[in-house]
């Protein structure tokens, strides 16, 4: 499992926004399904844990379906109350002749990674950068479409 924005994970650890030493915990378990609490650890750790659990279940019963909560992937230090969360879906199924079906998708109009790609690399504290974000993708505190700019707490 890869990490798309490692600097965000490092920042979350330094700022105490996640608990990197915590371990995911299975809350509910059946032969083919599980519900996992990530205990606010790193999203890549939770994702790897859940993926391996799903693989083990699929090997045993033919189907492995695991959902998780408590991931630090979307932590943003802001007083803003989020209206909706994102619940990405990843599904894979083997097929004949070395084929397979793989689906990895966001359940939002646009994955947050696509918005984050609009930011300057590397961002600096000295600049105020504004780049257009397609309409209806991000809004400011007043609900007005927001450009990407350094310091915007909604899309950092």
Automatic annotation (TrEMBL):
Ordered alphabetically, the record's keywords are: Oxidoreductase
Q: What is this protein called?
A: Uncharacterized protein
Question: Is DNA damage among the key words of this record?
Answer: no
Pfam families per the record?
A: Ldh_2
Q: Which InterPro entries match?
A: Mal/L-sulf/L-lact_DH-like_ah, Mal/L-sulf/L-lact_DH-like_NADP, Mal/L-sulfo/L-lacto_DH-like_sf, Malate/L-lactate_DH-like
Keyword Cytoplasm in annotation: no
Q: Which family does it belong to?
A: Belongs to the LDH2/MDH2 oxidoreductase family.
